[in-house]
Design brief:
A hairpin with a 3-residue loop joins β5 and β6 (149-153). The longest helix is centred in the C-terminal third of the chain and has 20 residues, at 197-216. It is built from nine helices and nine strands. The chain has helices at 2-11, 41-47, 53-56, 59-62, 65-75, 93-98, 176-190, 197-216, 222-226, and strands at 18-27, 81-87, 112-118, 124-131, 138-145, 149-153, 158-161, 168-170, 220-221. α5 packs across α8. A nine-stranded mixed beta sheet has the order 8-7-6-5-1-4-3-2-9. The chain starts with a helix and ends in a 38-residue tail after the last helix.
Length: 264
C-alpha cells in the first residue's frame, strides 16, 4: 500500500520532476539444495533453479525485477537503452566447497550486477543487485526529484522529504500479496477487467535487458533486447534430457564473460 501512496504523490509532483532513480536488491544470497544420489543433471538443475540462467534469468531478473518494476512504475515508461557490469566474484568453486557443498553450488549466475538504464527524456535509473554474504544489504527504491526525494523500503516504510516542509511518512502497511489478492477478488466480484500482464512483461523485459548488458559488457537497446532470438532453454523437456549448460570435470559451471558472451 505504501508504494501506491508514495508513487501517487510522485506522480502528483510532490518531489518535482524526477531526474533519476536508485534501486537496490542487495542480499547475502539464497538457498542451495545439494545433489542427491541418482539425480540426473536436469533434476539437479531444476531443484536448484535459482542458480541457472535458463531457469531463473539470474537474480537481476528473479529478485531485482521487483525494484525495476517500481522504477518503471515511477517513470511510467520502460528504458530505451542500458549498459552495466557484473560478474561472479565471491560465489566461486572454493566458496562452494567452504560451505560444505561442492563446486556445483555456485551454478552459472553472477553474484553482482550494476546497470545504468536510460529512459525517455534522459532520466536515469541506477540499478544494483548483489548476492554476497557479510555485506551491506538493501531492498530499496529512491526517486530523486527537482524538489525532494521519495524513498520506499521494499519490506518496510516509505517517506518523502522536501526541504522546508514536514516529511511525509508511511509505515509498512498491509501485506502486498494480500492487497493484490483483494484487488483481484474485487475485480472478479464487480465484473471489472483486471489485467496487469503488460506491466509484468515490460518489467521482466527491462530486467532481461539489464542482464544482457552485464553479461555482454555492451550497451543494449530496448529494440535489440525485445527482438532477440536468443533461446536459453533446452531443446527437450524431460528429466533425462541434457540441460543447456553442463559442469566441467571439476563440477564447475561456466558463467558469462563480459566482452565475449553473446547475450542477445
Amino acid at each position: 500500500m505504501k508504494h501506491r501512496e508514495v508513487i501517487r504523490r510522485i506522480h502528483e509532483g510532490v518531489i518535482g520532476s524526477v531526474r533519476f532513480v536508485r534501486i537496490y536488491f542487495n542480499s547475502g544470497g539464497v538457498w542451495f539444495r545439494p545433489r542427491k544420489p541418482g539425480q540426473t543433471e536436469m533434476q539437479f538443475q531444476v531443484s536448484n533453479w535459482y542458480y541457472f540462467t535458463w531457469l531463473s534469468g539470474d537474480h537481476i531478473v528473479e529478485q531485482h525485477v521487483h525494484d525495476i518494476d517500481v522504477a518503471n512504475w515511477i517513470l511510467r515508461a520502460h528504458p530505451i537503452r542500458a549498459w552495466g557490469m557484473g560478474g561472479r566474484q565471491v560465489r566461486t568453486p572454493e566458496w562452494g566447497k567452504a560451505q560444505g557443498y561442492g563446486a556445483d553450488a555456485v551454478g552459472e549466475i553472477f553474484d553482482h550486477h550494476s546497470v545504468e538504464f536510460e529512459y525517455p527524456d534522459g532520466v536515469r535509473v541506477f540499478s544494483v543487485c548483489r548476492h554476497m554474504p557479510g555485506c551491506w544489504n538493501a531492498f530499496l527504491q529512491v526517486a530523486h526529484g527537482t524538489e525532494g526525494i521519495a524513498e520506499i523500503q521494499g519490506h518496510g516504510a516509505g517517506r518523502i522529504i522536501v526541504p522546508g516542509k514536514d516529511p511525509l511518512r508511511w509505515d509498512r502497511g498491509p501485506d502486498g500479496h494480500q492487497v493484490e489478492m483483494d484487488d483481484l477478488f474485487a475485480a472478479i466480484l464487480s465484473g471489472e477487467p483486471y489485467n496487469e500482464a503488460d506491466w509484468a512483461a515490460e518489467s521482466s523485459m527491462t530486467a532481461i535487458m539489464g542482464r544482457m548488458a552485464t553479461y555482454s559488457g555492451k550497451e543494449v537497446t530496448w529494440e535489440q533486447a525485445f527482438n532477440s532470438q536468443l533461446e536459453l532453454g533446452p531443446k527437450e523437456l524431460s528429466w533425462d534430457a541434457t540441460p543447456p549448460v553442463l559442469p566441467n570435470e571439476q563440477g564447475f559451471y561456466p558463467c558469462a564473460i563480459p566482452g565475449q558472451t553473446q547475450a542477445w
